[in-house]
Amino acid sequence: MNLKNPIGIMVDSLRLGLRDGLKKAKEMGADGVQIYAVHGEMDPANMTPAARRELKQYIESLGLRISALCGDLGGHGFQDRLANPAKIEKSKRILDLAVELGTNVVTTHIGVVPDSESDPIYEEMQRACEELGVYAKQMNAYFAVETGPETAAHLKKFLDSLSTDGVSVNFDPANMVMVTGDDPVQGVYTLKDYIVHTHVKDGVRLREVDRREVYGSLGYEPMSHERIAEEAESGSSYRELPLGEGHVDFARYFAALQDIGYTGYLTIEREVGERPEADIAKAIDFIRRFR
Q1: Which tens digits make up the pLDDT trace of 20-49?
Q2: Does the pLDDT at position 225 exceed 80?
C-alpha cells in the first residue's frame, strides 16, 4: 500500500493549549491540524478580524494547514426545534471562520438520526441540515457529520434526502466499531460520495449499547464529550484504544479509502489516556507504515 494522505492531529487531543499544541503538532511531523472552534478563544464571537488574520499567518508560518475546524455543539444535536435557530446561526459563524482560516470543512455531530422518516425529530433534523447544507454549498464548503450514532447505510439515506452535499461526512471508524458495531470498511464504500474528512482512531465494543444513550437524543441525556470520554476510558460498553490495538482493520480501511479516491486528511484524535502525546506519536508511526 502506498498511502499518501496528509496526516493531521486534533490539537485539543494534545491538551497543551492552542499555541503550544500547534507547535507540538509541527514538531511531531503533522501536515495539518484540526481545532475546536466552539468555546474560549476559538469561539467565532471571540475572534476579531485581526485575531483571525494573525492565527492564519501563525499556522502558515509553522508550515501547517487546517484540516478542519470542529464545530460540535453537543447537546441533542439538531433535534430540538426550539434550540435549533441559535445552533444553526452559530454553526454558520463557525463555517465562516473556517473559510477565513483556510479550510472548507467543519466537523460536527447532528444528533442521532431516528429510524423512521415520519418521526417529527427526523423531519426537524432534515430541515436544519438542509439549511446548513445550502449555506455551506454556497461557500464551496461542508458541514461534515461524524460517523458513529447510526449505521453508514442509515446515515447515507438521511444525507441522500437533502438537496446538496453541503452536509457530508467526517468518517470515524472507531465510533462505528464501538457504538453501532457497523463495519467501517463497508461504511467507506457506502458513504464514498460524502467523505470529506476522516479521524484515525481505534477501539472495541464491549457490549451492545443504545446509541441514544451515547450520543444524546430528546428524552435522553444530552451528548457530552466528557461523558463519552469517561466511558471510552473505563466504561463497560466500549473502549478507545491506541491504533492497532482495537477492532478497526486499518489495512483494509486505508485500502478502502484509496479505492474510493479519498485524498484528504487522516486526522488523529485521542480522547482518552494519560499520555496523549506519546499515543499520538505512535499513531503517526502507525500510519506511516502504510506509506
Answers
A1: 999 999 999 999 999 999 999 999 999 999
A2: no
Q: Which of 67, 162, 33, 66 is nearest to 110 (CA)?
A: 162
pLDDT above 90 as % of the chain:
85
Ordered by start, the domain boundaries in the chain are: 7-288
pTM beyond cutoff 0.90: yes
Helix, strand, or coil (residue 274): coil
pLDDT band, very low/low/confident/very high, at 220 (cuts 50, 70, 90): confident
DSSP H/E element including 240: strand 238-241
Question: At 267, which amino acid appears?
Answer: T
| Residue 19 grid cell | 499555541
In our burial notation (b when 16+ CB lie closer than 10 A, e otherwise), range 73-89 reads bbbbbbbbeebbeebbe
- Average pLDDT of the segment spanning 240-244: 92
CA distance 64 to 50: 20
List Cα–Cα distances, 285 to 41, 64, 240, 244, 289, in angstroms.
Answer: 31, 19, 18, 11, 6
CATH 3.40.30.10 for domain 7-288 = no
Question: CA of 210: how far to CAs of 120, 171, 251, in Å?
Answer: 20, 20, 29
pLDDT, residue 1, reads 79
Alpha-helix residue ranges (DSSP H) falling in the chain:
18-27, 49-61, 84-101, 120-138, 152-160, 173-175, 184-190, 211-215, 225-234, 250-259, 276-288
Residue 291, CA distances (Å) to 3, 21, 77, 259 in order: 4, 25, 37, 15
Quote the pLDDT of residue 39: 94
Total H helices, total E strands in the chain: 11, 10
Q: What is the pLDDT of residue 217?
A: 86
Q: Supply the DSSP symbol for 33.
A: E
What is the overall mean pLDDT for the chain?
94
